[in-house]
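Hey L., structure's done. Input below.
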Amino acid sequence: MSDLRSELDRERATQRAQAIRALLARPLLTRDTGTDFALVVRHRAELVTWFDTHTGWRLIVEPRAGYARLMKTSPRPPVDRPARRPRGARTPFDRRRYTLLCLVAAELLGGPVTTIGIIAERLAHASAAEPDIAGFDSSRHDDRRAYVDALLMLEELGVLTAVDGSTDAYLQQTDAKVLYRVDSGRLVRLLAARQAPSRLPDGDIGALVHEPRYGGADDPAADVSDEQRNRWLRHSIVRKLLDDPVVYFADLSDAQRAYANSITGRRMLRTAVADAGMILEERAEGMLTADPDALATDEKFPAGGSVAGQAALLLLDTILAAHPDPVGEEQLIRQLTDRFTAVPGWARTYRSDGGPDRLAGEALALLARFGLIDHDGGIVRALPAAARYAVSQPTVVTPAQRSRR
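Output:
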């Protein structure tokens, strides 16, 4: 009987770990994801407690509405993980698309059913009323493209459902007929903030990411209780471990480093990572969390099929070869230029003027996102985690050596 209970406990732990990683990868998880959403619903009580204990993030599970929302709040939200256009190459949203996305979301609160034309009209009125926002004009193709991208993003999130017609049709004709159903409950959950924007003091946007439960514990001089400070230390480090490719001790505060190196702190970090079904790699320079199944990963490196990823590996070899000395960005651009000449069929989309510069910029940005390089002022340096990608010299074993073994 005890063996059966142990097996059931292991199975539940495995399911919870899969649910945790699914929520980390997709903080707005919908019924369409199938098994992952079912696991979140099945273990929602334990998951709510787990996220609150280890990260301070709020988890909202609405089985009937068909979604689960993990509120991944942060005092310094990352700027290198943009929303991406649902069409084509999924390029990042620009300022115009973010602006239209917010305006459209605000206009959708008006009712459960609407059309693409009604939203466009309201969008034109709303943008005209805001002096700091460029007016929306559906006759401009660029505005229509940005508008469609915003709508498709909301469709991906399950806020909008096209019950008649296709959103893409609006790209070609402004009189396209598209009828939408609006999920207002899911819409209001999009903003991961501790308080509603309407309650911000004097329009202070920074207050959106303020977390009162810590009492300002991130300030070493703040007069807070030991419980508040320890809670902030645990939450802030676990958030980094779960969200960032690598956590360097040099990037932590003195208090965070002390907590991470303490017996209690390290035990809490190991427990949190193990509960999520991942592996904590600990080094002298820092820590990283490895997901053996890549369930919680929104971006992979190296990844096949990406020209920027291939270029990143090429440049990383050069950067590692120079370590600990830095490498100038111009040298890396010349390396890609030479590569273009040597392999004429490679990187065709970067063959226009300035192509090597653009490709080098994308490749270096990718390496920086994974914590492998420091890129500042045209100078590039390898960071410790980059050593795992270093190509070592092969070991040759002679027949005589083999026989002695």
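The radius of gyration is 25 Å. The domain at 95-188 is CATH 1.10.10 (Arc Repressor Mutant, subunit A).

-- N.
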